[in-house]
Amino acid sequence: MSTLVKKQRDFHKLSKTWNVLFNLFAGIFAFLCVFPFIFVVIISFTDEGVLARDGYSLFPAKWSLSAYRYVFESGDMLLRSYGVTILVTLLGTLLSLLFISFYAYAISRKSFRYRNFFAFFAFFTMLFNGGLVPTYIIVTQFLGLKDTIWALVMPLAVNAFYIMILRTFYSTSVPDALIESGKIDGAGEFRIFLTLVLPLSLPGLATIALFSTLGYWNDWFNALLYIDDPNLVPLQSMLMRIETSMQFIMQNSTNSSLSLEALRSMPQDTSRMAMVVLATGPIIFAYPFFQRYFIQGLTVGAVKE
Protein backbone atom coordinates (compact mmCIF):
# COMPACT_ATOMS: atom_id res chain seq x y z
CA MET A 1 0.00 0.00 0.00
CA SER A 2 2.80 2.39 0.90
CA THR A 3 4.56 1.61 -2.39
CA LEU A 4 1.41 2.54 -4.35
CA VAL A 5 1.08 5.82 -2.49
CA LYS A 6 4.74 6.60 -3.12
CA LYS A 7 4.35 5.92 -6.84
CA GLN A 8 1.34 8.22 -6.97
CA ARG A 9 3.32 10.98 -5.27
CA ASP A 10 6.21 10.49 -7.70
CA PHE A 11 3.78 10.61 -10.62
CA HIS A 12 2.49 14.04 -9.59
CA LYS A 13 5.99 15.36 -8.94
CA LEU A 14 7.81 16.96 -11.89
CA SER A 15 11.37 16.02 -12.61
CA LYS A 16 14.06 18.69 -12.44
CA THR A 17 14.37 18.82 -16.23
CA TRP A 18 10.65 19.38 -16.80
CA ASN A 19 10.56 21.91 -14.00
CA VAL A 20 13.33 23.93 -15.69
CA LEU A 21 11.60 23.68 -19.08
CA PHE A 22 8.23 24.84 -17.73
CA ASN A 23 9.83 27.73 -15.87
CA LEU A 24 11.77 28.70 -18.98
CA PHE A 25 8.61 28.59 -21.08
CA ALA A 26 6.72 30.70 -18.52
CA GLY A 27 9.58 33.21 -18.40
CA ILE A 28 9.69 33.55 -22.19
CA PHE A 29 5.93 33.94 -22.38
CA ALA A 30 5.97 36.62 -19.65
CA PHE A 31 8.78 38.48 -21.45
CA LEU A 32 6.83 38.43 -24.73
CA CYS A 33 3.85 39.94 -22.91
CA VAL A 34 5.89 42.72 -21.33
CA PHE A 35 8.24 43.43 -24.26
CA PRO A 36 5.80 45.53 -26.36
CA PHE A 37 5.33 48.03 -23.54
CA ILE A 38 9.08 48.16 -22.89
CA PHE A 39 9.64 48.83 -26.59
CA VAL A 40 7.06 51.64 -26.53
CA VAL A 41 8.89 53.23 -23.58
CA ILE A 42 12.20 53.04 -25.50
CA ILE A 43 10.66 54.66 -28.57
CA SER A 44 9.17 57.45 -26.46
CA PHE A 45 12.68 58.38 -25.27
CA THR A 46 14.17 58.23 -28.78
CA ASP A 47 15.12 61.38 -30.68
CA GLU A 48 12.62 62.10 -33.48
CA GLY A 49 15.33 62.68 -36.07
CA VAL A 50 17.09 59.43 -35.22
CA LEU A 51 13.77 57.59 -35.38
CA ALA A 52 13.02 59.02 -38.83
CA ARG A 53 16.52 58.14 -40.09
CA ASP A 54 17.18 54.74 -38.50
CA GLY A 55 13.68 53.50 -37.74
CA TYR A 56 12.64 51.66 -34.59
CA SER A 57 15.50 50.26 -32.53
CA LEU A 58 16.05 48.82 -29.10
CA PHE A 59 19.29 50.80 -28.78
CA PRO A 60 18.74 54.20 -30.42
CA ALA A 61 21.74 56.33 -31.32
CA LYS A 62 20.35 59.34 -29.46
CA TRP A 63 18.00 59.64 -26.52
CA SER A 64 15.66 62.59 -26.07
CA LEU A 65 12.92 63.91 -23.78
CA SER A 66 11.41 66.07 -26.51
CA ALA A 67 8.29 63.90 -26.78
CA TYR A 68 7.44 64.27 -23.08
CA ARG A 69 8.39 67.95 -23.21
CA TYR A 70 5.98 68.47 -26.09
CA VAL A 71 3.16 66.68 -24.26
CA PHE A 72 3.74 68.58 -21.01
CA GLU A 73 3.78 71.92 -22.82
CA SER A 74 0.04 71.99 -22.22
CA GLY A 75 0.99 73.06 -18.69
CA ASP A 76 -1.47 72.53 -15.88
CA MET A 77 -4.09 71.10 -18.24
CA LEU A 78 -2.41 67.69 -18.35
CA LEU A 79 -2.04 67.51 -14.58
CA ARG A 80 -5.64 68.61 -14.19
CA SER A 81 -6.72 65.87 -16.62
CA TYR A 82 -4.80 63.34 -14.53
CA GLY A 83 -6.65 64.54 -11.45
CA VAL A 84 -10.03 64.31 -13.17
CA THR A 85 -9.29 60.79 -14.40
CA ILE A 86 -8.11 59.61 -10.98
CA LEU A 87 -11.19 61.10 -9.29
CA VAL A 88 -13.57 59.58 -11.84
CA THR A 89 -11.83 56.20 -11.64
CA LEU A 90 -11.91 56.00 -7.85
CA LEU A 91 -15.46 57.30 -7.49
CA GLY A 92 -16.78 55.23 -10.39
CA THR A 93 -15.14 52.02 -9.21
CA LEU A 94 -16.56 52.39 -5.70
CA LEU A 95 -20.06 53.09 -6.99
CA SER A 96 -19.83 50.22 -9.47
CA LEU A 97 -18.84 47.79 -6.73
CA LEU A 98 -21.68 49.05 -4.54
CA PHE A 99 -24.41 48.79 -7.18
CA ILE A 100 -23.22 45.62 -8.87
CA SER A 101 -22.52 43.68 -5.65
CA PHE A 102 -25.96 44.45 -4.18
CA TYR A 103 -27.80 43.72 -7.42
CA ALA A 104 -25.89 40.48 -8.09
CA TYR A 105 -26.33 39.24 -4.53
CA ALA A 106 -30.08 39.84 -4.62
CA ILE A 107 -30.66 37.90 -7.84
CA SER A 108 -28.35 35.09 -6.68
CA ARG A 109 -30.54 34.24 -3.66
CA LYS A 110 -33.23 31.64 -4.32
CA SER A 111 -35.35 33.13 -1.55
CA PHE A 112 -35.76 36.39 -3.48
CA ARG A 113 -39.18 36.22 -5.13
CA TYR A 114 -38.44 38.49 -8.11
CA ARG A 115 -34.93 37.20 -8.86
CA ASN A 116 -35.85 35.92 -12.33
CA PHE A 117 -37.45 39.21 -13.32
CA PHE A 118 -34.47 41.34 -12.27
CA ALA A 119 -32.02 38.84 -13.77
CA PHE A 120 -33.85 39.05 -17.10
CA PHE A 121 -34.02 42.84 -16.75
CA ALA A 122 -30.21 43.01 -16.50
CA PHE A 123 -29.68 40.43 -19.25
CA PHE A 124 -32.05 42.27 -21.62
CA THR A 125 -29.82 45.37 -21.53
CA MET A 126 -26.94 43.26 -22.85
CA LEU A 127 -28.94 42.56 -26.02
CA PHE A 128 -30.73 45.86 -26.63
CA ASN A 129 -30.20 49.50 -25.70
CA GLY A 130 -31.93 52.76 -26.43
CA GLY A 131 -29.26 54.09 -28.75
CA LEU A 132 -26.90 57.03 -28.61
CA VAL A 133 -29.39 59.86 -29.18
CA PRO A 134 -31.88 58.83 -26.42
CA THR A 135 -28.98 58.25 -24.04
CA TYR A 136 -27.57 61.69 -24.79
CA ILE A 137 -30.97 63.32 -24.26
CA ILE A 138 -31.48 61.53 -20.92
CA VAL A 139 -28.01 62.40 -19.61
CA THR A 140 -27.96 66.03 -20.72
CA GLN A 141 -31.61 67.18 -20.58
CA PHE A 142 -33.48 64.80 -18.29
CA LEU A 143 -30.73 64.28 -15.70
CA GLY A 144 -28.86 67.53 -16.35
CA LEU A 145 -25.40 65.96 -16.01
CA LYS A 146 -23.67 67.77 -18.88
CA ASP A 147 -20.31 69.32 -17.89
CA THR A 148 -20.27 67.54 -14.52
CA ILE A 149 -18.16 64.75 -13.09
CA TRP A 150 -21.26 62.57 -12.84
CA ALA A 151 -21.55 62.53 -16.63
CA LEU A 152 -18.27 60.56 -16.64
CA VAL A 153 -19.26 58.31 -13.70
CA MET A 154 -22.90 57.33 -14.03
CA PRO A 155 -23.00 55.94 -17.63
CA LEU A 156 -20.46 53.25 -16.68
CA ALA A 157 -21.56 52.64 -13.08
CA VAL A 158 -23.66 49.53 -13.78
CA ASN A 159 -22.62 46.86 -16.26
CA ALA A 160 -24.98 43.93 -16.87
CA PHE A 161 -22.12 41.61 -17.85
CA TYR A 162 -20.36 42.24 -14.54
CA ILE A 163 -23.64 41.58 -12.73
CA MET A 164 -23.91 38.17 -14.37
CA ILE A 165 -20.31 37.33 -13.49
CA LEU A 166 -20.75 38.27 -9.84
CA ARG A 167 -24.12 36.52 -9.61
CA THR A 168 -22.50 33.29 -10.78
CA PHE A 169 -19.73 33.80 -8.23
CA TYR A 170 -22.23 34.27 -5.39
CA SER A 171 -24.23 31.20 -6.47
CA THR A 172 -21.20 28.90 -6.64
CA SER A 173 -18.91 30.25 -3.90
CA VAL A 174 -21.26 31.37 -1.12
CA PRO A 175 -22.92 28.31 0.47
CA ASP A 176 -26.54 28.53 1.56
CA ALA A 177 -25.59 26.99 4.92
CA LEU A 178 -23.55 30.08 5.73
CA ILE A 179 -26.49 32.40 5.12
CA GLU A 180 -28.84 30.15 7.07
CA SER A 181 -26.47 30.18 10.02
CA GLY A 182 -26.52 33.98 9.97
CA LYS A 183 -30.31 34.02 9.96
CA ILE A 184 -30.40 31.58 12.88
CA ASP A 185 -28.16 33.95 14.83
CA GLY A 186 -30.66 36.75 14.19
CA ALA A 187 -28.70 38.73 11.60
CA GLY A 188 -30.54 40.67 8.90
CA GLU A 189 -29.85 40.55 5.19
CA PHE A 190 -27.62 43.61 5.22
CA ARG A 191 -25.52 42.33 8.14
CA ILE A 192 -25.26 38.87 6.56
CA PHE A 193 -23.96 40.43 3.38
CA LEU A 194 -21.38 42.61 5.14
CA THR A 195 -20.07 40.14 7.72
CA LEU A 196 -20.48 36.75 6.03
CA VAL A 197 -20.83 37.13 2.27
CA LEU A 198 -18.46 40.02 1.64
CA PRO A 199 -15.29 38.34 3.04
CA LEU A 200 -15.89 35.32 0.81
CA SER A 201 -16.48 37.55 -2.22
CA LEU A 202 -13.12 39.30 -2.36
CA PRO A 203 -11.88 37.45 -5.48
CA GLY A 204 -15.06 38.25 -7.41
CA LEU A 205 -15.19 41.84 -6.19
CA ALA A 206 -11.51 42.37 -7.02
CA THR A 207 -12.15 41.11 -10.55
CA ILE A 208 -15.10 43.46 -11.03
CA ALA A 209 -13.08 46.32 -9.51
CA LEU A 210 -10.26 45.70 -11.96
CA PHE A 211 -12.65 45.65 -14.93
CA SER A 212 -14.37 48.83 -13.74
CA THR A 213 -11.07 50.59 -13.12
CA LEU A 214 -9.85 49.80 -16.62
CA GLY A 215 -13.15 50.96 -18.08
CA TYR A 216 -13.12 54.31 -16.29
CA TRP A 217 -9.42 54.93 -16.85
CA ASN A 218 -9.60 54.30 -20.60
CA ASP A 219 -12.91 56.05 -21.19
CA TRP A 220 -12.81 59.01 -23.58
CA PHE A 221 -16.11 58.69 -25.44
CA ASN A 222 -18.29 60.01 -22.61
CA ALA A 223 -16.04 63.06 -22.30
CA LEU A 224 -16.41 63.63 -26.03
CA LEU A 225 -20.20 63.62 -25.67
CA TYR A 226 -20.86 65.36 -22.38
CA ILE A 227 -17.83 67.50 -21.45
CA ASP A 228 -17.17 70.96 -22.91
CA ASP A 229 -15.57 72.47 -19.80
CA PRO A 230 -11.76 72.28 -20.24
CA ASN A 231 -11.36 71.86 -16.47
CA LEU A 232 -13.27 68.53 -16.57
CA VAL A 233 -11.54 66.87 -19.52
CA PRO A 234 -10.10 63.46 -18.49
CA LEU A 235 -6.66 62.20 -19.44
CA GLN A 236 -7.57 60.04 -22.44
CA SER A 237 -9.62 62.81 -24.01
CA MET A 238 -6.88 65.35 -23.37
CA LEU A 239 -4.25 63.16 -25.04
CA MET A 240 -6.58 62.62 -27.98
CA ARG A 241 -6.98 66.38 -28.37
CA ILE A 242 -3.21 66.87 -28.29
CA GLU A 243 -2.81 64.21 -30.96
CA THR A 244 -5.53 65.78 -33.10
CA SER A 245 -3.95 69.22 -32.82
CA MET A 246 -0.56 67.85 -33.79
CA GLN A 247 -1.97 66.07 -36.84
CA PHE A 248 -3.80 69.23 -37.90
CA ILE A 249 -0.57 71.23 -37.76
CA MET A 250 1.35 68.64 -39.75
CA GLN A 251 -1.34 68.30 -42.42
CA ASN A 252 -1.64 72.07 -42.84
CA SER A 253 2.07 72.84 -42.60
CA THR A 254 2.04 74.88 -45.83
CA ASN A 255 -0.49 77.32 -44.36
CA SER A 256 1.05 77.35 -40.92
CA SER A 257 3.06 80.24 -39.50
CA LEU A 258 5.56 77.77 -38.06
CA SER A 259 8.92 77.44 -39.74
CA LEU A 260 9.83 74.31 -41.66
CA GLU A 261 12.56 73.50 -39.16
CA ALA A 262 10.09 73.67 -36.28
CA LEU A 263 7.72 71.33 -38.08
CA ARG A 264 10.48 68.84 -38.73
CA SER A 265 11.56 68.89 -35.09
CA MET A 266 8.03 68.21 -33.87
CA PRO A 267 8.09 64.77 -32.14
CA GLN A 268 5.19 63.26 -34.07
CA ASP A 269 5.91 59.52 -33.66
CA THR A 270 7.68 59.62 -30.33
CA SER A 271 4.98 61.80 -28.79
CA ARG A 272 2.39 59.13 -29.63
CA MET A 273 4.47 56.61 -27.70
CA ALA A 274 4.87 59.06 -24.83
CA MET A 275 1.09 59.41 -24.68
CA VAL A 276 0.74 55.63 -24.50
CA VAL A 277 3.20 55.51 -21.60
CA LEU A 278 1.45 58.33 -19.74
CA ALA A 279 -1.96 56.73 -20.27
CA THR A 280 -1.10 53.12 -19.39
CA GLY A 281 1.70 53.51 -16.86
CA PRO A 282 -0.38 54.24 -13.73
CA ILE A 283 -2.88 51.46 -14.40
CA ILE A 284 -0.07 48.95 -14.92
CA PHE A 285 1.42 49.79 -11.53
CA ALA A 286 -2.03 49.53 -9.91
CA TYR A 287 -2.64 45.98 -11.14
CA PRO A 288 -0.44 44.21 -8.50
CA PHE A 289 -2.67 45.60 -5.74
CA PHE A 290 -5.69 43.87 -7.30
CA GLN A 291 -3.66 40.70 -7.76
CA ARG A 292 -2.90 40.64 -4.04
CA TYR A 293 -6.62 40.64 -3.23
CA PHE A 294 -7.20 37.84 -5.74
CA ILE A 295 -4.90 35.56 -3.74
CA GLN A 296 -5.94 36.82 -0.30
CA GLY A 297 -9.66 36.42 -0.90
CA LEU A 298 -9.36 32.76 -1.87
CA THR A 299 -8.62 31.65 1.70
CA VAL A 300 -11.04 33.88 3.63
CA GLY A 301 -14.08 32.30 5.26
CA ALA A 302 -15.32 28.77 5.71
CA VAL A 303 -18.42 26.80 6.67
CA LYS A 304 -18.15 24.91 9.93
CA GLU A 305 -19.78 21.51 10.10
Features of the shown structure:
disordered C terminus; mainly alpha; 16 helices; 305 residues; MetI-like fold; 73% helix
Describe the structure.
The chain contains 16 helices and no strands. Helix content is 73%, strand content 0%. The chain has one domain (73-297): MetI-like (MetI-like fold, Orthogonal Bundle). The protein starts with a helix and ends in an 8-residue tail after the last helix. Helix 5 (76-108) packs antiparallel against helix 12 (202-217) and helix 6 (115-127) packs antiparallel against helix 9. It is mainly α and 305 residues long. It is flat. The chain has helices at residues 2-12, 16-44, 48-54, 66-71, 76-108, 115-127, 132-142, 150-153, 160-173, 176-184, 189-200, 202-217, 221-226, 235-251, 260-264, 268-297. Keywords: Cell membrane, Membrane, Transmembrane, Transmembrane helix, Transport.
